[in-house]
Amino acid sequence: MKLFSIFAPRRSEVAPPDVPREPALRAAEVLGVPLSHLTPQVRAAFNAMMGEVDNLRLDVEQLRYKLAEAENAADHDPLVAVYNRRAFMREASRVLAMVRRHEIEAGLIYFDLNSFKEINDRHGHPAGDMVLRAVGETLLRHTRETDIVGRIGGDEFAVVLTHLNPEAARAKAETLAAAICTEKVVFEEEALFVNAAFGVAAFRPGDTAEKTLAAADEAMFADKALHRRAARA
Description:
Blueprint lengths: L22 H9 L8 H36 L9 H18 L3 E9 L1 H8 L1 H17 L6 E4 L4 E7 L3 H17 L2 E3 L2 E3 L2 E8 L6 H24 L1
Antiparallel strand pairs: 1-3, 1-6, 2-3, 4-5
């Protein structure tokens, strides 16, 4: 006796192959119609009806897919693979609600790219677009899945960091700014670099997302002014 025959299932234990059921039989089960009532005319009607149901189901799935695509396109910047301003502010408002409800800590970083205008003026918008995409990818690469990255304006980006105190958020902002500074973009065989001024603001339960963004923006301008004074000294 061959060894494999010991483990072979008996014929009665072998599951029958899946055979597609006639739509009319499925319809009869759903509607509680006895199979004996399925005359050829009734079967044909049920088959047609179930075919329409299957087509409608397919149409609904396609509509859901297109709606998801449209929602995704509406939420994301057309150039950079991050949230646009509207979607970013919506998500920031959700984080603020968590801050209020669960008393977690969260911070918002506002970035403004230095020397970006010079790149656009010297090399044109295609080079500037490459730089913006590189900055967005850098921010995504160096943040967590739970963080929120958005493009707020032309060369302005923002990041929401959850479960971080102000000191940790400031340290993360410095890390992100350093990553932006070292990101090299090659355009027509020339290496392009930008650096970023930044400001950090903590989410406060009594504030709004707009107020938090404005506070980070104000801190960014203070940081930019400080570096300008240092450069002139």
